[in-house]
Every structure is written in structure tokens, then in C-alpha cells.
Specification:
The chain is mainly α. The chain contains ten helices and ten strands. Its EC number is 2.3.1.225.
Length: 351
């Protein structure tokens, strides 16, 4: 037991190394910019004051979003998705996978769940012992199931999911802005030191290295930001981009896409005044989502979650508040003939 505990402690310490490295780089960049550039190199007071104001605004937004991403605890499934005691005992005693699935299906039919495994089975986490809500996945690093999990990011030492995905996107945006401000204001002094128009002082190394580091970080962070903005527009997580969610009608990579404006609102909220600040404004509570093919009744889904043990404290909003925004859906009716039986299939498609 002791070696295992010590190993886990060492692992937790090691997991902080990337985040500590980022903070050390930011700390050095602050010294290089404020002291070596603005104090020792720039001679014009007006230019110095202007640079310092712009720099500190970008730094404040960057640090605010970054630490919100780090310290926001990942949201996990509520009690509504835990197996009732009787079904849990039957599930644990049963050794046949098929019978276990029947037990899970019996419980899942009363929950707003529409995705399955690739084999069509109910998604269940044996470690957390919960039926996974749509878009929920287990993180082996955080050792928990995370609602609308996107990925585990080593640079923030945290899981990026429903509770902090907006913060993560803003962190990338403001990190790009921070690097851009440094590059744009340092470039003229970088050229002067590089071409020896400025005398060799202790500031030269810091100015040259600061520009190179900011430029490299800007290129890498902007690339990552562009990818996640694309994901937001498509209403996909990183996991869903690599492995399409499976619905009753099969895999559908666009299953949760409701149109660009509503996709953006799902992450950033429906009030533009909250978009640019790292405050929680995402729609819904991460347990249920409107899809292109399935219309979720918000009152029914909320009632089911409450009856299954979800208290108001477990969520930040009604479970299906997003469903109230679904408009202009067109119901199509198709008929499939399977042998001697005719099956009617109702499908909703986005405009």
C-alpha cells in the first residue's frame, strides 16, 4: 500500500512539471519585457508607458484564463447516472456480459442518453460505477469520469471538459495575444540589437531570446487555437473529432452540431458580453445534449434527472436548457422494410 501511495504522489508532482515550466517562462518574459526592454532599453517615456499598459492588459487576461483552466474542477456525472442499489448488486453478481447489458439498458432507458459504444452497448464506467452521459469519458490521469470531456491537457495539469472548455479556448486566445503583443513591440529593438545598431548590453540577450520564444509560442498556440475554434464551430470535442459518437442510427461525427451560431452559444453562452471573459456561461449542465437526430424534451429530461437523484446543487443549469433553443427542425418520415415487417423511422434534421 505504501509504495503505491508514494508512486501516486510522485506521479502527481511530475504532472505539475509542464505547468510549472509555463509559469517560469511567463515569469521570465515579464522580467525581460518590463525591466530589460521598458526600463533599460526604451528611452521614450511615452513609448514606455504605452507598451507597459498594453502588455499588462494582455498578461492579465492571459493569466486569468490560464489559472481558471487549471483550478476549475472537472464536472462529473450526477447521482442520476449511478446504478440503483438493487441493479448494482445484480450487475456485480452477474458474469454474463449480455445479461449485464440488459441491466444497464433497463436503467438507461429512463435517462437522456442517446449514444452507445461502437458495438451498440450502453456506455458504463466500471471504475466510477456510473452510466456515462453522452459525451462523457473516463480520464485515467484525473481518475474520474468527466462531462463532455475534450482531452487531458498536461500544460494545465487538468482535464478540459464541460466545466472549463471555454476557459481553455480563452487561454489559447489570450496566450496568442500576449505573444503577439511581445513580438509586435519588441521587433524593432530585436532588429537593432541583431544589426548592432544598439550597443551590447545585458539587455541584448533577453531582447533577442524574448522575441524568438514569443514567436515560436505564437505559431504553436495559434495553430492549436485555430483547431479548437474549428471544433467549437462544429460542436465537437477532440475525442469526437477522432472517433465519431455512435447513435442508434450509427456513427455520426456531426451528431451534436446544431448550426454554427448555436454551436458557439453552447460553449460561450447566448450573451455576447460574457464571451471574452473567463466566467462560466456555457449552456446546459453537461449531462444531456440536443442532437440533430434526437429532440430531447427539456421538462421530461429534467424530471428524470431529479427523480434519479440529481439535486439542483449537482448542476449549474437545467439539464436541457439547450433544447429550448432548437428551432426550425424538420421531421422526416422514412420507412424501412425488414423482411415482412415495416419499421417507421422518425428523423429530425437541422435546417
Amino acid at each position: 500500500m505504501a509504495p503505491s501511495h508514494a508512486l501516486r504522489c510522485c506521479k502527481r508532482v511530475i504532472n505539475w512539471v509542464p505547468a510549472v515550466f509555463i509559469n517560469l517562462v511567463v515569469g521570465w518574459s515579464y522580467y525581460a519585457y518590463v525591466v530589460e526592454l521598458c526600463v533599460y532599453t526604451i528611452t521614450s517615456n511615452a513609448e514606455r508607458i504605452c507598451y507597459l499598459i498594453i502588455f499588462h492588459i494582455a498578461l492579465f487576461l492571459f493569466i486569468w484564463a490560464y489559472w481558471k483552466t487549471i483550478w476549475s474542477k472537472p464536472a462529473s456525472p450526477s447521482k442520476a447516472f449511478v446504478l440503483p442499489r438493487a441493479e448494482k448488486e445484480l450487475y456485480e453478481q452477474e458474469e454474463r456480459a449480455q445479461v449485464q447489458q440488459e441491466i444497464l439498458k433497463k436503467v438507461a432507458k429512463n435517462l437522456p442518453i442517446y449514444t452507445r459504444t461502437a458495438g451498440g452497448a450502453v456506455r458504463y464506467c466500471d471504475i466510477c460505477q456510473v452510466i456515462k452521459p453522452d459525451r462523457c469519458h473516463h480520464c485515467s490521469t484525473c481518475e474520474m469520469c468527466v462531462l463532455k470531456m475534450d482531452h487531458h491537457c498536461p500544460w494545465v495539469n487538468n482535464c478540459v471538459g464541460f466545466s472549463n472548455y471555454k476557459y481553455f479556448v480563452l487561454f489559447l486566445a489570450y496566450a496568442s495575444l500576449y505573444c503577439l503583443v511581445i513580438c509586435a513591440t519588441v521587433v524593432q529593438y530585436f532588429i537593432k540589437f541583431w544589426t548592432k545598431q544598439e550597443p551590447n548590453t545585458h539587455a541584448k540577450f533577453h531582447i533577442l531570446f524574448l522575441f524568438f520564444v514569443a514567436a515560436l509560442f505564437f505559431i504553436s498556440v495559434v495553430s492549436l487555437l485555430s483547431y479548437h475554434l474549428w471544433l467549437v464551430g462544429k460542436n465537437r470535442t477532440t475525442i469526437e473529432a477522432f472517433r465519431a459518437p455512435v447513435f442508434a442510427n450509427g456513427p455520426d461525427k456531426n451528431g451534436f452540431s446544431l448550426g454554427f451560431s448555436r454551436n458557439v452559444a453552447e460553449v460561450f453562452g447566448d450573451q455576447a458580453k460574457h464571451w471574452f471573459f473567463p466566467v462560466f456561461s456555457a449552456l446546459g449542465d453537461g449531462h444531456s445534449f440536443v442532437t440533430r437526430l434526437v429532440h430531447i424534451d427539456p421538462e421530461q429530461a429534467n424530471s428524470v434527472l431529479q427523480q434519479n437523484g440529481k439535486s439542483p446543487a449537482d448542476g449549474e443549469a437545467n439539464s436541457c436548457v439547450i433544447a429550448n433553443n432548437v428551432q426550425h427542425t424538420e421531421e422526416l418520415s422514412k420507412e424501412k422494410t425488414d423482411g415482412e415487417h415495416t419499421v417507421s423511422v422518425s428523423v429530425e434534421s437541422e435546417p
